[in-house]
Amino acid sequence: MSSNAFHVMTKPVGPICNLDCTYCFYLEKENLYPNVSKWAMRPEVLESYVRQYIEAQSSDVISFAWQGGEPTLLGVDFFRRMVELQKKYANGKQIENAFQTNGVLLNDAWGQFFAENKFLVGFSIDGPEHLHDAYRVDKGGKGSFRRVVAGMETLKRNGVPFNTLTTVHRANSYHPLEVYRFLREQGSGYMQFIPIIERKTSQTTRDGLTLVLPTFTEDAQVTEWSVEPAQFGKFLCGIFDEWVRHDVGKQFVQLFDVSLEMWFGREASLCVFRRKCGSALALEHGGDLYSCDHFVYPENRLGNIMETPLAELADSPQQKKFGEDKESTLPKYCQTCDVRFACNGECPKHRFLTTPEGEAGLNYLCAGYKMFFHHVDPYMRFMADQLQREQAPANVMRWVAQQDAAKSANGKVGRNAMCLCGSGKKYKACCLHSGKPGSSTGQPNAMSS
Questions:
Q1: What is the pLDDT of residue 37?
Q2: pLDDT at residue 300 is higher than 70
Q3: What residues are annotated to the active site?
Q4: End-to-end alpha-carbon separation of the chain, Å?
Q5: Torsion sign over Cα 69, 74, 80, 85
Q6: Phi and psi at residue 5, in whole multiples of 5°?
Q7: What mean pLDDT comes out for the span 277-304?
Q8: Predicted TM-score of the model (pTM)
Q9: For the residues 236-244, what does the mean pLDDT come to?
Q10: FRET partner for 242 with CA separation of 20 to 30 A, picked from 30, 36, 213, 414?
Q11: Can you give the three-state secondary structure of the chain, one letter per residue?
C-alpha cells in the first residue's frame, strides 16, 4: 500500500485515436514506442494493474480513470473483462470508473454497458459546430461535430451521466457565452474548461517529439492554436458572469467549484492549483508509469508496473521530487502575488515564461488567471461566507441581482447596496472610501476583507 494517496490516468490504448485533433499533445507519444505494433493493454498487464491499484489505495472507494487516445477503440468487451477483474480484486471496496471519450464510436452497446456498471463518462466537445470543428477533425481532416453529438445522444438515450470536457483554444476562446450556453443546452451539468498551451520546436527531438517540455531551452514557439493568456482570462470571466447570475447550484463548472474551495480556506482538489503535485500519474498501455499525463516524456518515466510494484513507483524519490518541485521552483514574483493562495503557479507544464525581473518559471497563463481570480474575488468571498454560516452559496445570485439593480447610471454601486466585498454591510458603511470592491478608486483585491 502506498504511503500517500495517488490517482492514475490509465491509457489502455496508448495514444491511438480515431480523430486527429490539431491541438492534441498526446498523439505524437506514439513515437516513444517505435516497435509497438498492437496498441492494446495486454491481459496480464490489465490484471496486474487492476490488482495493484486496488491494493495500493487505503480508501474504501477506489476510482479508476480510463482515457487515451480513444479508449472505445478497444471495444466494449475489453472493459467488460476489466470490470470482472475489479470485482475479483475489490476485497469489499467500492469501485468507481470514469471514462473519457470523444464519443464518435458510441452506440447502444456502450450506452448499456456504461449504465449497467455506473460509469461516469467524460465527453470531449469544444462548443457548437463551427468552434468544435476548428481543430477536432478526423484522419481525413473532416469535422467530427455531428458524430460527436450523435454519441452524446446515445448517452442520453441510455441514461448515462456525463460531464463535458471543453478545451479552450485560439478559436473558441473568443466566444465564451456561445460555448457555455451551448453546453448548458446540451444538458451538461458539470463542465471542465481545459486551456490548450503547447510549445513546438521546428526540429524533432531525439525522442521523435515536437511538443516540448517547459525546460526545453532550444528554439520553440507557442503554437498557433494555443489560447492567448489575456483571452483565457476574458473567457473565464465571461462565463463566470453568466453563471453567477443565473446558474449557481444548477450548473457546475470545475474551476468555479475549485475556486470556492480555495476561498473557503481549503487546499484545491484540482492538482494544478495545489502547492505541490505528483499524486496524478499516467499509465501507458504496456505498463510504463509516468509522473503525469502532461509529462509523458522519457525523463519522466518512473518504471514499469510489471517490473516494479505500482505503489513503490508512486512513492519513489523521483516522483516525490517531481511533486515538490512545483513549489520549490516557484518564482519570487509568484510567491508574493496576492492570488498565490489560489493559483500556486498553476501547472508546471505551462511555466516557460520569465518574470518581469528575468526569473524563469512564470506560467504562460499568469495574466489570464490574475484577471479571473481578481474578478471573482468578491463573489467567492460572499459564497465562502455563506458556507461558513451554513447557508447556500446559491444565495449569491440574489445578492448579485441586488448589486446590479443598485448600480447607478455611471456604473458605481449605490451607497445603500450591500457591499460587494461580502461583509454583509451596506456599501456606505464598508468599502465606499477604502478603494475596495465597488468603489470608484480601486479594483477587487483577492486578499482584502
A1: 87
A2: yes
A3: 293
A4: 43
A5: negative
A6: -70, 140
A7: 97
A8: 0.90
A9: 98
A10: 414
A11: CCCCCCEEEECCCCCCCCECCCCCCCHHHHHHCCCCCCCCCCHHHHHHHHHHHHHHCCCCEEEEEECCCCHHHHCHHHHHHHHHHHHHHCCCCEEEEEEEECCCCCCHHHHHHHHHCCCEEEEECCCCHHHHCCCCEECCCCECHHHHHHHHHHHHHCCCCEEEEEEECCCHHHCHHHHHHHHHHCCCCEEEEEECCCEEECCCCCCCCCECCCCCCCCEEECCCCCCHHHHHHHHHHHHHHHHHHCCCCCEEHHHHHHHHHHCCCCCCCHHHCCCCCCEEEECCCCEEECCCCCCCHHHEEEECCCCCHHHHHCCHHHHHHHHHHHHCCCHHHHCCCCHHHHCCCCHHHCCEECCCCCEEECCCHHHHHHHHHHHHHHHHHHHHHHHCCCCHHHHHHHHHHHHHHCCCCCCCCCCCECCCCCCCEHHHCCCCCCCCCCCCCCCCCCCC
Nearest to 344 by CA among 279, 275, 278, 277: 275
Place of cell 508574493: 336
- Which of 431, 424, 416 has its CA nearest to residue 388? 424
Quote the pLDDT of residue 408: 55
In the chain, % of residues over pLDDT 90: 87
Q: How many CA atoms lie within 13 A of 217 on its CB side?
A: 1
Distance CA 376, CA 244 (A): 9
Nearest partner of 14 among 310, 33, 96, 106, judged by Cα: 33
Q: Is the pLDDT of residue 346 over 90?
A: yes
pLDDT in tens, 413-437: 667 766 655 455 677 777 666 444 4
Residue 261 has pLDDT above 80, yes or no: yes
pLDDT value at residue 424 = 58
Cell 456504461 -> residue: 114
- Looking at residue 435, its pLDDT comes to 43
Residue 4: the pLDDT is 78
